[in-house]
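Sample entry (296 residues):
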Amino acid sequence: MKLANYINDLLYRYDCVIVPDFGGFITNSLGAVVGNNHTFYPPKKEVGFNSHLSHNDGLLANHIASSENISFEKATTAISLSVIKWKKKLQSEKVVLENLGSLSLNNENKIIFTPEHKINFLISSFGLTSFESNSILRNQVKSLDIHTEKNLKTSVFIRYAASIAVICALGYATFSGLEKYKTSKIIIAKREALEKKIQSATFIITEPLPTINLSVVKKEITTPYHVIAGAFQFEKNADKKVKQLIKKGFEAKIIGKNKWGLIQVAFQSFEERTDAEKLLFGLRKSIAKDAWLLVR
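Predicted structure, serialized as tokens:
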């Protein structure tokens, strides 16, 4: 089983894919840029790696179980076997992950990840490639100037003719404007007279209309950005996690089940992505290194 293929599939849909007991692959969105030689590059999602994100959130195992039509336990075992092979291979050489990048150990025995820059995980940029703009040479500019000078004399007569046409049009527009002004003054006078009649009139309602009670449904504000604390198979475990987080001061809640049937618990949900990322980065530095961002 090529574990890299399943990680690759998930990175198109999620910002973080965790390999239990190994680390997490995280995507970072980058805008369009202009490189050397007038080369334009489209927006992209670049992949990074964080060895501290090693807690099993169930995302990768559920994806493998669904794709291979096997149980969650067998998928978890298959992941563990791949991780063991990776760690053993890293002691002597690089581990190349197809369409992701390569892993290696530095002098401090820490994992270094080198991404594959040719792969773009941003779905909205699908089909877009880099392109190089042609530069304009000086001799081309000179030829354009000569051509412009030839056409300049021809355009002088046209400009004079256009000026005469504009003067005629302005004369007609002035006459038309005066007529419209007179008409508008008459309309305004009639409207003012009608408003005075309405203000002086008295309306008597002998039988008032019955009262109608309307129920207004308050529309809930959507919060599409969720900082995930974990995913649980049993509801009682999810409820327990929510209570723990609320005691710590978070606005924790259950946000429903994912496509694999696991109950997801969020530290907090936000309307703005920047607010969610601010909390996420703070959690990763302190109490929850395996927290990740879910966008709905």
